[in-house]
Amino acid sequence: MVNMTTSGNAALRAARQSLGYRSQAALADALTKTARTIGLRVAVTARTVRRWESAEPPWPQTEHAAALEALFKRPIAELGFIPPWSDESTPTRPTVRTAADLQTAQRHFPGAAAALPASVATDYVAITVSYRHLYWSLPATRLHRSVAEHAQLGIDLLQQVPDPAKAALAKAVSESSLLAGRLEFFDLQQPELSQPSFVLALQAAHEGDDVLLASAILAHMAFAPAFSGDASRAEEARDRLRAARAFARRGNASAEMIAWLDAVEAEVETRFGDTRRALSLIHHAEETYEEYDSDTNPSPTWLDWFSPTRLAGFKGNTLIIAGRGREARETLERVIVDLPEDAVKQKSIYLADLAAAAVLEKNPEEACTHLESALDQLGRTWYATAMDRIKAVRQSLRQWDSLPAVRALDDRLYDWHTTVNSLVG
Asked: Where do the domains of the chain lie?
């Protein structure tokens, strides 16, 4: 066994040399180029490779890990890296296959050796569609494991279905992994899990040659830097969106999808403090949506998380951040009326935003009423992102702590049910 304390990460160094890269700089260049081929715009430096070949190599960032796996055609755990979750401290995620596993499945099992009929892919796609629908009604903690395991099952099936069925199967694997990432990021608030899911979804979209799915995945990958609170990550988020728009153009995206990309970019700019730019993007999205013709250029069926009503919801939140309480209230009141009955998760978000608008208008009692309604929604379907919004509005009510309405809200906010859900959900 190699003594890592004296010789550094011998596994990675040996793998590098086996591919003919005589220096760390040469490997860095190769990884940067490989990242481009799988749709990632990241740069690897010789300094980063030097850290990876040290005696205590850090676990690579998600995009770097994908590039390593794509170049070496093996999981990064076989390159001398020890996963930070190796103590099995992450309770909700099943064993995760990597992007390299997906490539291996496609490379080593040609159609002639297929062990399963093409109908398996059809059945897998049908289950994927069912999970897409269940997202709106099932609690995330119940749905997540099934969706994540479904994505892993798809990778295994890619090894065994005939070649003509692989593209459809790869697209369904991509959608499943995207859904897992959405659950992890928005519902469970575990961004450290969501990014590997998004990378795997991107790789599967590449295998299925689905540029619109790739666009959607890249746009979702912009949320992590935007929600991080780290202003230095603004360009990272914007780069993801530039990539998403490039893929959307390549796939002749519908006006609806372009409007959604505008809304995502508006969310990013709002998070980084540029509400003027964000409102301009939302205005453009509204104009674009007016051009949408579902008969001439329909959206993909998986784009079920966006609508004119939800665009207005984006607008309401941006108006709040911009300090325009009355406009935000008027916008969000229309959103609540127009929202479908089954949009329980989104309704909790919009009620919390309505409460924030009430705070801007110096109406704490109305804010408390909206927050209690939001808690009613969370009692039906838990949504961690909504709870974050609720707690942020509660913090803004501190100057009215002595009001009976605020005290009653605290009794509700910190009852057994809500407290336990917020800690384990």
From this structure: 4-79, 95-209, 334-424
Gap between the Cα atoms of 293 and 270, Å rounded = 29
The token pair that represents 416 in the structure block: 């057994």
Q: What is each CA distance from 376 to 47, 88, 136, 414, 416, in whole angstroms?
A: 52, 34, 16, 13, 14
Query: Residues 244-261: pLDDT tens digits?
Result: 999 999 999 999 999 999
Residues 354-398 have pLDDT tens digits of 999 999 999 999 999 999 999 999 888 888 888 989 999 999 999
Confirm if 191 and 184 have CB atoms less than 8 A apart. Answer: yes
Q: 146 to each of 90, 301, 304, how far by Cα in Å?
A: 16, 21, 20
Whether 166 contacts 121, CB under 8 Å: yes
With a threshold of 0.85, does the pTM exceed it?
no
